[in-house]
Amino acid sequence: MNLRLTPNSMPLAVRPSMPNALGKAVGGAAEPGGFQGALKAALGSVSAAQNESTRLQREVQLENPKVSLEETMVAIQKAQIGFQATLHVRNRMVQAYTDIMNMQV
Q1: What's the whole-number average pLDDT of the chain?
Q2: I need a labelling partner for 27 at 20 to 30 A (CA). Which of 48, 51, 60, 103 fits?
């Protein structure tokens, strides 16, 4: 799972190639490479890691000589760390939403 920020996954306000991106995003529709795209890509990456670890577990259980136990354990740990990170992000987003909804205007 790659967690590095690229110009396409950076927040709109700090993208190096688009200095006025914040103004464009506020006035119009959401950009395809914005937060939604980054979130979908991250969730897809976590899902792929979980699917890969499940596949490797199945291969080890079937005693496939081409799949090592070490490789399987590393894949399981990567999937677990990715899921935990996703869970933390979700909890922070829910907390931010709750904070915003509880603000008095």
Answers
A1: 80
A2: 103
